[in-house]
Design brief:
The structure is a single chain. The longest helix is centred in the first third of the chain and has 21 residues. The protein has 284 residues and is of the alpha/beta class. Helices cover 41% and strands 15% of the residues. The structure holds guanine. Guanine binds next to strand 4.
């Protein structure tokens, strides 16, 4: 069994983005990312800080808009519209979840799809469905990078995704399908889940339940990707996979922390770079 080193793969992606950014800067183009955060959710604040740090690391311009909890929908919408018009901003990200009085769908729908670096806008979601996309949602894109890093060929393999969220499960299944895996999406209502997961050559767990996937649910030699981020009974960070038992059965596995987590912000950097290139008419 080999542990997939998310930190190392993430670093390689950032180095690639930084190198391309340096080249863009020679042409007078600096990719710019706007990050909007509303309210004081501590986890969101950490994520946003890490996104700003990553921007600095790869050479992007970034601007944070920290709005108070009392922000109205109208104020938030106006900010998005303003950022849509700004030439120095190539990507717009509104950190979720928003406070309950604000409608996230309304905000997402307002972001110009060519600046939608989360790939949450229905235009980008549709583009993924038909395999003609500019941006991939950061978590599934990060998972694909991790799978590629193993050298395992996805083509023709049986892939099972546990979880059907719009942000992870559904696009994840689509990306695996684009690479010619035979894909099955499972979820909380699936009957005889273990019978399905046991057949998976590639198993992606994105269900949000601590240590849910146990060794008896995993095929010998499977590639196991753990998207979960939970706390166990002792308050320790853990994934959706029971790492200690599953790691003895699989060929590759991602740890939590240090697996999928580090990838997501790197893929956001990749998307912002892509956005800057598209908006400046640079192809390749
Ligand atoms: N909150 C948790 N994950 C994400 C993400 O990928 N994008 C945004 N915008 N908010 C999030």
């Amino acid at each position: 069994m080999k542990i997939i080193d998310g930190k190392a793969v993430s670093k390689a992606v950032r180095e690639r983005v930084a190198a391309e950014t340096a080249k863009l800067k020679e042409k007078g183009i600096t990719p710019g990312l706007a990050v909007i955060i509303v309210g004081d959710d501590p986890a969101s604040k950490v994520y946003v800080k890490n996104k700003e740090k990553a921007c600095e690391e790869v050479g992007f311009f970034s601007e944070k808009f920290a709005l108070p909890e009392s922000t109205t929908q109208k104020e938030l919408n106006s900010l998005v519209k303003e950022l849509n018009e700004r030439n120095d901003i190539n990507g717009i990200l509104c950190q979720l979840p928003l406070p309950p009085h604000l409608n996230d769908k309304e905000v997402i729908n307002l972001i110009n799809p060519i600046k939608d670096v989360d790939a949450f806008h229905p235009v980008n979601v549709g583009a993924i469905m038909i395999g003609d996309y500019s941006f991939l949602p950061c978590t599934p894109a990060g998972v694909m990078e991790l799978i590629h890093s193993t050298g395992v060929d996805v083509c023709g393999k049986k892939a099972v995704v546990i979880g059907r969220s719009n942000i992870v499960g559904k696009p994840m299944a689509m990306l695996l399908l684009h690479e010619n895996a035979t894909v099955e999406i499972t979820h909380s209502k699936t009957k005889n889940l273990a019978d399905i997961t046991k057949k998976a050559d590639i198993l992606v767990a994105a269900i949000g339940k601590a240590k849910f996937v146990t060794a008896d649910m995993v095929k010998d030699g499977a590639v196991v990707i753990d998207v979960g981020m939970n706390r166990d009974e002792n308050g320790k960070l853990c994934g959706d996979v029971d790492f200690d038992s599953v790691c003895e059965k699989c060929s590759f596995i991602t740890p939590v922390p240090g697996g999928v987590g580090p990838m997501t912000i790197s893929m956001l950097m990749q998307n912002t770079l892509t956005a800057a290139k598209i908006q400046n008419g640079i192809k390749d």
